[in-house]
Design a protein that fits this description.
Helix content is about 10%, strand content about 45%. By secondary structure, the chain is mostly beta strands. Among the domains are: about 35 residues, no CATH class; about 200 residues, no CATH class. Strands 34-35-36-1-38-37 form a six-stranded antiparallel sheet, with no helix packed on it. Strands 2-3-4-5 form a four-stranded antiparallel sheet, with no helix packed on it. It starts with a helix and ends with a strand.
């Protein structure tokens, strides 16, 4: 096309171009085929003939973790791929010593469209933190150690990994620093409560290490976190304070360091990230940084999201538990209809959070009702925002008011009306709500106790309107007193259960379409058993 013709057509409308791309007008776009495939997969999953079959079960005495098609057992020493038709072992490492125990882990995935210095960076890897303060980058497929960084000595009990910016900036946090009993009895005061180490990932590079102390942030500090460039400091009595973490790093950085760099720091000579020196505390906060925002909320519960920006808190009194206030971040004004209260009579309280699909909506989950809320401008008043219902999902249950019949000694029948709990286990109750971002489906787990056993089913709902598209029964018994996690990952459903005395179970379901043929085969074949290692766990394939 000539420049004159291109100019005559005028400037492109960005929204129109994006809309046309979503609908597949540009066949050469790299994401078109992927979006079409996911659309087809969603239709296949939701059609009536598609079933989810329990193909694999395992039990363990140690916690079981799941990340992107990989199941981790034995404190990440054994990795099982759940993508294949029958889950298979990717790697099995020798049993590690107590000092090599992995405290926490994050999955690291390659960013799109970036040139990276090493071929290993283009494959998924696992960042793990050990009990002896080693940070390791492992191959997600083989368990091979790709990078090894020593963080600090035994004075810093580093225990937790989290994302500041997902897949970009990682934070390592210590357990709360406590003085020995003898030191406390001697009246010695502990000022430093937490240690933080911050890294850029892919390639892994050191940004800084710092202390969080009472001297700077106050004597009532109880916990700290970093998220999206914000330092979140929690205090007793429910106070939450926010600071600009990036500004803190820039203002109080004494000297930048690189991993592998030789240094002479405060009388110590060593190599950054190598034993025995580890990382230098190159960020020293000498004064209280400027406060961005503070709020008081019951149990420090505080969330930010929506558009325009809003936050959710619970008034800081026990009697308000289960009551949520949605307020503007700009001026703290309560939104119209911003008080959300389901008025439930429950043992376990309802919960609320901003929808993870980045739509700015809010999900409020009660025992028998899920409300998806949205923020919108009030008509004729653009300065005010109101909370309205987008859609609701209701549990399939009967009237919660029951009649108890008793007979007196004289034979007289007495009927007494009882108000049962809203989360009574004999009534269908919502336990888990999640979002599958690639298929744009909202998933819910509802449980009903039938006799001594609990029966659960996983439902898939349209994320835009809440319409029920598919229901998948979970075959194993569900005890509501146990801890449960359910993952819905494209064509896979995975249920991890924690029983008393640290007993863990994992149930894997995979999508099948030709159900008649599968049922005939399963009736003829006995379950296959494969040993993961000598004297090890038994894996059952169905």
């Amino acid at each position: 096309m000539s420049p004159q013709k291109a100019a005559s057509r005028g400037p492109h409308n960005v929204c129109r171009l994006l809309g046309r791309r979503v609908h597949g007008f540009y066949a050469g776009d790299a994401g078109v085929a992927h979006r079409k495939n996911l659309g087809l997969l969603r239709k296949i999953i939701c059609q009536e003939s598609t079933k989810f079959k329990n193909v694999w079960t395992t039990h363990s005495a140690s916690p079981i973790a799941y990340e992107r098609g990989r199941i981790y057992l034995d404190n990440y020493q054994c990795c099982v791929s759940s993508i294949a038709q029958e889950p298979r072992i990717l790697y099995q490492k020798p049993k590690c010593s107590k000092s090599e125990k992995i405290e926490d882990a994050l999955l690291l995935e390659c960013p799109l469209g970036e040139m990276l210095p090493s071929p290993s960076h283009y494959k998924s890897s696992l960042i793990v933190l050990t009990a002896q303060n080693w940070l390791l980058r492992l191959s997600a497929d083989s368990g091979e150690v790709l990078e090894k960084i020593y963080l600090a000595g035994s004075c810093c009990r580093l225990r937790y990994l989290s994302w500041d910016t997902p897949q970009e900036v990682m934070v390592v946090k210590s357990a709360q620093n406590k003085l020995p009993a003898a030191a406390r009895q001697a009246g010695i005061q502990q000022s430093v409560l937490f240690y933080l180490a911050v890294f850029q990932v892919l390639p892994l590079s050191f940004i800084g290490m710092l202390e969080i102390s009472k001297k700077i942030f106050g004597n009532t500090i109880t916990d700290v976190a970093v998220s999206n460039g914000i330092l979140i400091v929690m205090h007793s009595m429910g106070l939450v304070r926010l600071y600009d973490f990036q500004a803190i790093c820039e203002q109080f950085m004494e000297q930048p360091f690189s991993l592998g760099q030789e240094f002479n720091w405060n009388g110590q000579v060593g190599v950054v990230g190598k034993y025995p020196f580890g990382l230098p505390f190159n960020i020293k906060i000498t004064d209280t940084p400027p406060l961005l925002f503070e709020a008081s909320s019951l149990e420090n519960a505080f969330q930010i999201g929506g558009y325009p920006w809003h936050y959710i808190i619970t008034p800081n009194k026990k009697k308000h538990k289960g009551v949520f206030h949605i307020c503007s971040l700009k001026d703290n004004a309560l939104a119209k209809n911003g008080i959300q209260d389901m008025k439930c009579c429950v043992l376990e309280p309802d919960w609320i959070y901003f929808h993870p699909d980045m739509s700015g909506r809010i999900i409020h989950v009660g025992p028998n009702l899920i409300k998806v809320l949205k923020l919108q401008e009030v008509k004729n008043n653009t300065d005010q925002v109101e909370v309205t219902e987008d859609f609701t999902i209701v549990a399939n249950r009967e009237n919660c008011v029951d009649s108890a019949v008793t007979v007196t000694a004289s034979g007289r029948v007495v009927k007494k009306r009882l108000n049962v709990l809203d989360d009574d286990p004999e009534q269908e109750t919502f336990k888990i709500v999640d979002y599958e971002d690639e298929l744009d489906l909202l998933s819910t787990v509802a449980v009903t106790e039938v006799g001594a056993d609990g029966k659960a089913h996983l439902d898939f709902h349209c994320n835009d309107r809440g319409i029920l598209l598919k229901s998948v029964p979970l075959l194993e018994s569900w005890d509501v007193t146990y801890s449960h996690e359910v993952y819905f990952d494209k064509d896979l459903v995975l249920h991890i259960e924690q029983k008393p005395n640290r007993r863990f179970s994992c149930y894997v379901y995979q999508m099948v379409c030709d159900t008649a043929k599968d049922e005939e085969c399963s009736s003829c074949e006995k379950p296959k058993r494969v040993s993961c290692r000598k004297g090890g766990r038994i894996f059952e394939y169905f």
